[in-house]
Amino acid sequence: MVPDLSKIPDSPGVYLMKGASGDVIYVGKAISLSRRVRSYFQASAGHTPKTKVLVRQIEDIEVILTDTEIDALVLEANLIKKYRPRYNVRLKDDKRYPYVKVTVNESFPRIFLTRRRLMDNALYFGPYTNSRAIRSIVELITGLFQLRKCRKPIVAGKTRPCLNYHIKLCTAPCRGAPEESEYRERVMEAVRFLKGDTSGLLKQLEGKMHSLAEQQDYESAAQVRDQIEGIRCLTQQQIATSGTDDRDIIAAVSDETVVFLQIFYVRHGSMVGKADFSLVGAEGSKEIPEALATFVKQYYQDSPIPPEILVQYEVPEKELIMTWLSGRSGRDVKLHVPQKGDKRKMLDMAVRNAEMAMRVAELHKGPAEAAQLALTQLQEVLSLEKVPQRIEGFDISNISGTNAVGSMVVFENGLPANSKYRQHNIRTVKGIDDFAMMAEVVTRRYSRLMRENLPMPDLILIDGGPGQVGAAKSSLDSLGLDIPLIGLAKRFEHIITPKKGPGEVIILPKASPALKLLMHIRDEAHRFAVTSHRRRRSATLTHSELDAIPGIGPGKKRLLLEHFGSVDNIRSASAESLAEVKGINRKTAERILQHLGANAESTQN
Q: Which GO terms describe its molecular function (predicted)?
């Protein structure tokens, strides 16, 4: 059912698509809500499989008007974060790495860690991926420069100093000393350290360490030594880059279900850290530019914005995003793709790190987890009411219509259930007719389940194209069963549905987990069918009426059966036809026909 679109205005804003339960399943923005929303319901729009599934789930649409497209962009990102809609590309987790905040907007500034950046005119440094190390550094510099940690308002002479003053970790501006200018000078010395000028602080610490050692206070000297090593370790982790600007470098790779992102943080010309993120709901490498744009909009909602952001692809709505970033940061922000030089090298390094993160994620993903991911994707692609936890796959194997066998394999929770495999010897079909054979096997399987009141599968997979699928569908219809049914054509690995028209074929990316699972089931059904057919044919070749004919050994028997397909066909053949088989002369042919004819007469009598 198409929701009522007549009341949607031709204005900028955000639209919220809702499913049958009333939950928000997709959030989008548009400069013209009317045109954008209507495009979802146009048959000629050429939607991706994911969008087609989304459209079939829409029961209602709510819109929120905004003054500008920028306002719509901000609201869209906030609503995605709030509702986490099923069909939106979204951050898998909202972890934030810590920043060092210096409240230079206060009379007596403090230095502390925070995971959110506010537009409050304070100074922010970071982010730092090693939170333990940076926490230790913040403790070190606040103690060395004797900066206050408390949040209480400064009212000189009216506040009693805390313990930090008495153990000489704070100069206690709350008691009226030092003056604000002197205190701020201490703060700016700490800021110089955070900007990378560590030489002065290291000299001060080394002097303190030697002084303590001379006083034979070796325990305290060792603590200072460890502080020095910590600072040197932090500075050695920085990677020099060209220039002195701040920038973020963002690279992304995809395994067709998750986009893995790597951010390198460059501050004052040095790489100070990196972070890993992932986006879910972005199937296919073609969606990486869109995923990058989505990530930028969601990530920089509450993260510091550098003047330059490097990405590996040109992103959609680039100018709009740059305008929004510039407005948030209060300065021009450049978002571009470097083509050469040191910036390109850093971006390539970020890409390699993202690829490594993807490989590590694959290694830690067990078979059960991977199978559930594939089943969930399969549910979306096929618009199934529930996750197909039980799938049954069928295939037919025969040679020239002889010894035909139908196989049925069962996958539960995305994994093979070998003990539930079944073989069906074809009984009613003579000659070469794969469609009729498939219809017979499907009918026999599900009529038995109905008689024995056993549970039906969530999905049926047929090895074949429209003909085999149509035959299986006819069998289900004759039984009055409505079980989701698809086929998988081997040549192009296209999913065939019983529908007629544009929806008959579904094409998934080769690396899609859903497609890989279907291929596994199809290949397993084929393997089981071939194995069963060989076993039956071997039994036919081993025990035959031909065994009693003098002069017919295993070799000639095999050649005769392979040539004619069955003993009945040999009995109906002429002596001339039999003599065409290698090793069979006219005399032997007549002997064969005489024996088979006599045997047939004795059987009748």
A: DNA binding; excinuclease ABC activity
Same domain, 597 and 503: no
Is the distance from CB of 132 to CB of 149 less than 8 angstroms? no
CA distances to 168, 366, 401, 562, 574 from 581, rounded to whole Å, are 107, 55, 20, 10, 12
Q: Model confidence over 228-267: pLDDT tens digits?
A: 776 676 555 444 444 447 889 999 998 766 888 999 888 7
Tally of domains within the chain: 4
The pLDDT tens digits for 327-348 are: 888 889 999 999 988 899 999 9
Sequence-distant (≥ 6) Cβ neighbours of residue 364 within 8 angstroms: none
Q: What would the two tokens of residue 362 be?
A: 């694959």
The answer as to whether 212 is a domain residue is: no
CA distances from 433 to 400, 436, 462, 536 (A): 9, 6, 15, 19
What is the SS3 assignment for 316-360?
A: CCHHHHHHHHHHHHCCCCEEECCCCHHHHHHHHHHHHHHHHHHHH
d(CA 25, CA 325): 27
Bridge partners for 60 per DSSP? 18
In a domain, 405, yes or no: yes
At 462, list the tokens.
């047929």
Concatenated DSSP letters of 357-375: HHHHHHHT--HHHHHHHHH
Q: Clarify whether residues 378 and 335 are in a common domain.
A: no
Closest CA to 426 of 401, 405, 444: 405
| Residue 349 scores a pLDDT above 70 | yes
Query: What domain range includes position 585?
Result: 544-604
How far apart are the C-alpha atoms of 242 and 237, rounded to whole Å?
A: 16
**What are the CA-CA distances from residue 69 to residues 15, 87, 245, 422 (Å)?**
13, 22, 30, 59
* Statement to judge: residues 335 and 460 lie in one domain: no
Do the Cβ atoms of 265 and 272 come closer than 8 Å? yes
Cβ-defined contacts of 493-498 (< 8 Å, 24+): 493/519, 495/381, 495/382, 496/462, 496/464, 496/465, 496/466, 496/469, 497/382, 497/469, 498/469, 498/470, 498/473
Residues 385 and 524 in one domain: yes
> What residues does 99 pair with on adjacent strands?
114
- Under 8 Å between Cβ of 254 and 284: yes
Query: Looking at 88, 111, 142, which one is the last position of a domain?
Result: 88
- Among 310, 335, 363, where does a domain finish? 363
